[in-house]
Write a structure and sequence with these properties.
The chain has 1309 residues and is an alpha+beta fold. Helix content is 76%, strand content 8%. The chain has helices at 43-55, 72-75, 136-147, 151-158, 172-183, 185-239, 241-295, 304-380, 393-475, 477-531, 533-568, 574-634, 642-679, 694-732, 734-820, 827-878, 883-963, 968-1098, 1105-1159, 1204-1222, 1240-1257, 1272-1279; strands at residues 6-13, 24-27, 32-37, 79-89, 95-106, 111-115, 118-123, 129-134, 1167-1175, 1182-1191, 1194-1197, 1228-1232, 1264-1269, 1286-1292, 1298-1304. Strands 1, 2, 4, 5, 6, 7 and 8 form a seven-stranded antiparallel sheet that branches. Strands 12-13-3-14-15 form a five-stranded mixed sheet, sandwiched between helices. Strand 4 (79-89) and strand 5 (95-106) form a beta hairpin. Helix 12 (574-634) runs antiparallel to helix 15. The longest helix is centred in the last third of the chain and has 131 residues, at 968-1098. The chain is flat, with a radius of gyration of 65 Å. The protein starts with 5 loop residues before the first strand and ends in a 5-residue tail after the last strand.
């Protein structure tokens, strides 16, 4: 017997109402398994688990699977784990266990579902268990393959959900999708579309390869022609290489002679320039000597060696003076440092004395404040024995202890008060909570009543709306009839449009036929022209060549015309252009020689003036550098005069010394007055007796003045030190100040005046030389431009000759071609016409295709309108039985309205109870609020008293602690010692100030002597410079005499060199012109070769023209064969699919008829059929399905015309037929509540039909029928067949968890 897929067992845990802690297992028998249970027990969950295990699809409306798993809130857990495990046998009889696991987690605002990895467990060849994990998507594909059926069959036929069981009567779109999935139509439709797409692509490739073959043929011929021309031009170039080598040798010799003569001419010019430079330098040396004589105050008669010895001696004296100056400065610095040390000590003593006096004063103040605070504190809090100040430390400590005891009593009183009022508030709070619980319960009851009333109102509104619609149906008979007439009128209009489109299609086809004929004629002409390709290609190449040569001539003429007109004033003929250019070059060369000699003389004069300027500029630069150094040193004084600053600094030092002495004297005087005031009760100045508080005020003022003295002394001494250092720096700058005045007023103005005069001469000579130089450069540029035009003239002559030859050759070839054919159009023109015809033909074909599609669309609309008209006829027929339905709806509406009246009465009673409880609760809340306020008031009073006491107690404690820290006797002892140290430091400062004054006087005398030595040294240096300048003048005179003698001998040689140079340059110009002509001809040929090579490179197809031609032929033939094969495949597959679909539909309808006739007990429906209409309007074939019932031989659409029981029975019959047809490898079928809406007769007949199916299929070992029902009578009818010994009962336990239990089927009776 053949093997079939079967299901053995199913394990469910944590799914819907099945417990997440316990596992429920159900075993499936062969051939029949019955599952019985009440509504809501969990029967359908078994079908959902089977479907989920096989396909991985969650049930519809399960919130993405979250509602499919046991709710964590019901289980009282944060996380619930669920598992479905199914054991089945595959097509080959192999046992397999499929496991799927899930996890649902409850979070704060949402639930999170996680699908864990699935597993398949099987057995290997040795009988060992093998388990493999799968991702969910992979498992969803694997299991349908193992079961031998598609996913669509599992979902729509085998394990169809109860909610989807009536899908055969759904709308046309849903029905089409279901049957397309069952037949797997989409997969084959895609294959057909892909084949059609590939066939179209191959067809387009054939057209493309035909055109490419023509192009490859043209490329092959054109490449051969270009290569032939390149070889011919290369041979011409090789012939002219010998002449070019001879000209190159002659030009090289001429160029060598020109370089030699120009070098000799340049040497003579350099000698003349050197002579002029030496003369200018001598004039400048004389001027510098005159300036030095003016700067020398005393002209010395000693020899040079003696002067150098004197200068060396001055340097030694300067070093000794500098050493002495450094010693004086170091001594002065040492004295100032020692004085500053004693001044710092004096300042420190003053600061320490002031600090100690401040501490003593602060101690007295703290003690007075403490005693005042004790008096205030004891008086406020009635502590006796502390009325009169002052107080000692023991008395202060006693007051602090008494205050601490008082603080403890206040804290205890506050704690007792809080406890009393808290107990009262808690008692009222418990009473309020009991009221709130009662009110909340009543409010929840009212909310439920309101929701029920709202639901009833909505149901009443829906019922009223439905009644209104039913009434409207009965009133719209005329409207339906009018609509039917409109549809019939629209049908006539659509038929007219279809006829118009057919007419347009006929005209387009005639136009396409005409275009195809024109394409054939053009192809014939092209075939004839292909035979003449070589001749036409040659003419085309020569025409292109002629055009390029003329274009090149035009470009050359356009390029040289502005230059020719610029030099010759007009554009001569091409034949005379070269001779006129050579004549102009000769004239320009003569003019250049004359101007060049004049320009050299001007440059020599400019060089002499420039040398003179550089000598003066170096002197000015040296003076400015010295002046900048002096100014940099003197920049510290700013814009003021140095002598004025020195005088001002000396005056300030004297003033600061006086201020210091006066401050020190005032300090001693104030100290003495203070001592006298302490000893006597009278003023030390006026000897008047003090009043009660005047003495204390006077002493405080003297102490303040004494405290200010150290700071004033410190500031005076710091200022004095700074001013002394400033005076030293100013005295050191005095020699630089004298030198700066001399350079600014005498040396620099004289040197600048000479430079300005020389600069004016240089500018004048430079303008003259530049003008002449510009003229020379213009003539040179003109000669270069004219020489550059000569090669272009040669190229023009060569191009003109070639153009004339090409024109004659083209005329000869065209005359030959006209003798053969009168059509002189090129192959490219004909290809363009052919492409245009092809494009127009394709557009006509597309237009025909569009019109055909529109025609098919109109035909489809015609069919739809016919169906609409049939439907309207049926609707008119069905509008007669609406009265009974209106009566039932009215009774239902009355029941709901009465229920709402009772619910509203209960709502009013609960509202009155809530109002009474709310009033009672408000009274208790008022008492609680009053008690809380009183407790808070008394607590705030005691807390305020405690806080005030605590604040004053803390202040008193701090004052006592601070007053005990100070020791007044020790402070007075330290003040006396510091005053003695101050007096000794002041005496030492006076001694050091006297020594500093002596040292400053010696330092000033030493600086004056140093400045005088610098002046004498400068005079000595100027004498030495003057003698050196006289020696340089003597050497320059000797050099000038030598150069003048050399120039007299060379004058005649220079004229001879210029004459030879002019002759050789003329010969060089003639040879260069001849060479340029040769180069122009060669360049033109090379340009032509490069152009031909560029043409070969510009089209890569030229390089592989022969190979491309052969490959194109192969591609064309193979593509034509592929297109023919694809066309065969398309039609073969389309016919096979149509045949398969037809056979299967006939088989399905046959089984439907058989089961329906054996099951249905009514007389109104003879049988059912699934009608299938093929739609060819789309690119690929598709089918439209509809379920019809046969009445008296007439087929009517069953949707909308049958009862609920007929719907259920029809759906079951169709599923049985589909299972019989498509489930060849899987004998499983599950029916969920199959008797829903069936009357007793149809239930019995359906049971008999199932028994017959079981009898028929019992020969199959793995056939399984699973029936889930709540109808125990239906189970008894099936149980009589003796195909089931047991059945499974699904029920709920005490925890409302679903359980499965096997029971004997005989127990049902």
């Amino acid at each position: 017997k053949p093997e079939m897929t079967s299901v053995d067992k199913l394990l469910i845990q944590g799914i819907r109402s099945f417990s997440p802690q316990n596992q429920n297992v159900i075993e499936f028998y062969k051939p029949l398994t019955i599952i019985v249970g009440q509504n809501g027990a969990g029967k359908t969950t078994i079908i959902e688990c089977l479907k989920y295990a096989c396909t991985g699809e969650f049930p519809a409306n399960s919130a993405g699977g979250k509602a499919f798993i046991h709710d964590p809130k019901v289980a009282g857990e944060r996380e619930v784990k669920a598992q479905v495990k199914m054991r089945f046998r595959s097509v080959n009889g192999k046992p397999i266990v499929c496991t799927r696991s899930m996890q649902l987690t409850e979070k704060a605002s949402k639930q999170n579902l996680k699908t864990l990895e699935g597993a398949l467990q099987t057995y290997d060849q040795t009988g060992q268990k093998v388990s493999q994990s799968y991702r969910c998507g992979d498992l969803d594909k694997e299991i349908p393959e193992l079961m031998g059926v598609s996913k669509a069959i599992l979902e729509s036929v085998i394990f169809c959900h109860q909610e989807d069981s009536n899908w055969p009567l759904s709308d046309s779109a849903t029905l089409k999708k279901r049957f397309d999935d069952i037949f797997a139509s989409t997969k084959y439709t895609k294959a057909l579309l892909e084949i059609a797409k590939q066939r179209k692509a191959q067809k387009a490739s054939v057209k493309e390869y035909k055109l490419k073959l023509q192009i490859a043929t043209n490329n092959r011929d054109q490449a051969a022609q270009l290569k032939s021309e390149i070889e011919s031009l290369k041979a011409s170039i090789e012939e002219g290489e010998g002449d070019n080598k001879t000209l190159e040798e002659r030009l090289s010799k001429c160029n060598a002679k020109i370089e030699t003569l120009r070098k000799q001419k340049s040497e003579f010019a350099n000698a003349f320039s050197e002579l002029a430079t030496h003369k200018a330098a001598r004039v400048e040396m004389e001027r510098i000597s005159t300036v030095l004589i003016e700067q020398i105050k005393t002209m010395l008669d000693e020899s040079d060696e003696e002067l150098k010895d004197m200068l060396s001696q001055f340097d030694n004296e300067t070093k000794n003076a500098a050493s002495r100056l450094a010693q004086f400065s170091a001594k002065l610095k040492e004295l100032n440092a020692e004085k500053a040390t004693f001044e710092r000590k004096l300042l420190t003593f003053s600061e320490e004395s002031g600090n100690l006096r401040s501490q003593l004063k602060r101690y007295e103040q703290l003690r007075m404040e403490r005693d005042g605070l004790i008096v205030e504190f004891t008086g406020r809090y009635e502590i006796v024995g502390f009325e009169d100040a002052p107080f000692n430390s023991q008395q202060a400590e006693q007051v602090v202890n008494l205050a601490n005891e008082k603080m403890i009593k206040l804290k205890e009183q506050l704690t007792a008060l809080k406890a009393t009022f808290k107990s009262k508030s808690d008692k009222y709070g418990k009473t309020l909570e009991s009221f709130q619980v009662e009110i909340r319960g009543l409010s929840n009851g009212n909310e439920q009543i309101k929701r029920q009333v709202e639901n009833n109102k909505r149901t009443v509104e829906q019922t009223s709306e439905e009644m209104k619609k039913k009434k409207q149906y009965s009133q719209t008979l005329d409207a339906v009839e009018k609509k039917k007439e409109d549809e019939e009128q629209g049908l006539k209009v659509a038929q007219g449009q279809a006829a118009e489109l057919e007419k347009r299609i006929t005209e387009s086809m005639k136009q396409k036929t005409k275009l195809d004929k024109q394409m054939a004629e053009a192809s014939a002409v092209i075939q004839q022209l292909l035979l003449q390709t070589e001749a036409r290609s040659a003419i085309g190449h020569k025409k292109n060549e002629l055009k390029k040569k003329k274009d090149e001539m035009t470009k050359i003429l356009a390029k040289i015309e502005p230059q020719v007109k610029k030099h010759l004033k007009q554009m001569p003929e091409v034949s005379k252009l070269k001779s006129q250019l050579e004549k102009e070059i000769s004239a320009k060369s003569k003019q250049l020689s004359e101007l060049d000699r004049k320009w050299q003389d001007q440059k020599n004069q400019h060089s002499q003036a420039k040398g003179k300027f550089e000598l003066h500029e170096a002197q000015v630069k040296s003076l400015k550098s010295d002046l900048a150094d002096k100014r940099k040193k003197l920049s510290v004084v700013g814009n003021r005069s140095l002598p004025d600053l020195i005088k001002e600094a000396e005056e300030n030092i004297g003033k600061r010394n006086k201020d210091t002495i006066m401050t020190e004297s005032a300090s001693r005087m104030y100290g003495k007055y203070l001592e006298l005031t302490k000893q006597h009760d009278e003023c030390p100045l006026c000897e008047r007796s003090f009043q009660s508080k005047e003495k204390k005020s006077f002493m405080l003022k003297l102490e303040e003045m004494l405290n200010e003295v150290p700071e004033a002394l410190r500031k005076n001494k710091e200022t004095l030190k700074e001013q002394q250092m400033m005076l030293e720096q100013l005295n050191a700058l005095h020699p630089d100040y004298v030198a700066q005045l001399r350079i600014e007023n005498e040396d620099l103005p004289a040197a600048q005046k000479s430079i300005d005069q020389i600069k004016s001469d240089i500018e004048r000579l430079q303008i003259i030389a530049e003008t002449t130089g510009n003229e020379v450069e213009e003539i040179k540029k003109s000669i270069e431009d004219l020489n550059g035009l000569l090669p272009m003239c040669s190229s023009l002559i060569y191009l003109e000759n070639d153009s004339a030859g090409l024109t004659k050759e083209i005329q000869v070839e065209e005359s030959k071609l006209k003798a053969v054919s009168s059509d002189v159009r090129s192959l490219d023109d004909l290809n363009e016409e052919l492409a245009k015809f092809q494009k127009d033909s394709e557009e006509a074909g597309e237009s025909i295709e569009r019109d055909r599609k529109k025609s098919m669309e109109i035909q489809r609309k015609l069919d739809e309108k016919k169906k609409t008209i049939d439907k309207l006829k049926d609707e008119l027929f069905n509008m007669k039985g609406i009265g009974g339905e209106l009566k039932k709806l009215s009774e239902k509406k009355s029941e709901l309205e009465n229920a709402n009246v009772a619910l509203l009465a209960e709502f009013e009673e609960n509202s009155e109870k809530i109002q009474r409880k709310t009033l009672e609760m408000a009274e208790v809340q008022a008492k609680k609020t009053k008690t809380d306020k009183e407790g808070m008031r008394q607590e705030e009073e005691i807390s305020s008293e405690k806080d005030n006491f605590q604040k004053m107690f803390n202040q008193l404690t701090n004052q006592c602690r601070q007053a005990e820290k100070e020791n007044p006797d020790e402070i007075r002892r330290k003040i006396g010692k510091i005053e003695q140290d101050q007096k000794s430091a002041e005496a030492k400062i006076s001694e050091i100030s006297a020594e500093i004054e002596k040292a400053n006087k010696k330092l000033s005398e030493s600086r004056d002597q140093s400045a005088q030595r610098d002046l004498e040294k400068s005079n000595l240096q100027n004498n030495i410079k003057h003698r050196a300048q006289l020696r340089r003048i003597e050497d320059t005179d000797k050099k000038i005499v030598e150069l003048e003698a050399k120039y007299a001998k060379s004058a005649s040689s220079l004229q001879e060199i210029e004459k030879q140079l002019s002759k050789v340059e003329k010969e060089y110009s003639t040879l260069k012109s001849e060479k340029d002509q040769k180069i122009g001809a060669k360049a033109t040929r090379m340009a032509t070769i490069k152009e031909r090579q560029r043409q070969l490179r510009s089209k890569p197809e030229y390089a592989t023209a022969d190979q491309d031609h052969q490959e194109m032929i192969i591609h064309l033939k193979t593509t034509e064969m592929a297109e023919a094969d694809l066309d065969k495949y398309y039609h073969a597959l389309d016919k096979a699919l149509m045949k398969y679909h037809t056979v299967k539909m006939e088989e399905i309808n046959k089984i439907i008829k058989e089961i329906w006739e054996n099951t249905y007990r009514g007389n109104d429906i003879e049988t059912l059929e699934i009608r299938c209409d093929a739609d060819t309007s789309a690119k690929a074939r598709s089918y439209h399905y509809s379920l019809v019932m046969i009445k008296n031989g007439t087929a009517l659409d069953m949707r909308g015309r049958c009862s609920a029981g007929q719907k259920v029975l029809a759906s079951l019959v169709i599923r049985l037929a589909l299972a019989e047809t498509f489930c060849l490898n899987c004998g499983i079928l599950a029916l969920d509540e199959p008797t829903t809406n069936l009357d007793r007769h149809n239930v019995e007949s359906f049971a008999n039909a199932l028994v017959n199916i079981l009898e028929t299929r019992s020969q199959q070992t793995n056939f399984q029928l699973i029936i889930i029902t709540h109808d125990e009578e239906f189970v008894q009818l099936i149980g009589k067949s003796k195909h089931a010994d047991y059945y499974w009962r699904v029920s709920k336990d005490a925890h409302q968890h679903s359980t499965i239990e096997r029971q004997d089927i005989q127990d049902l009776s």
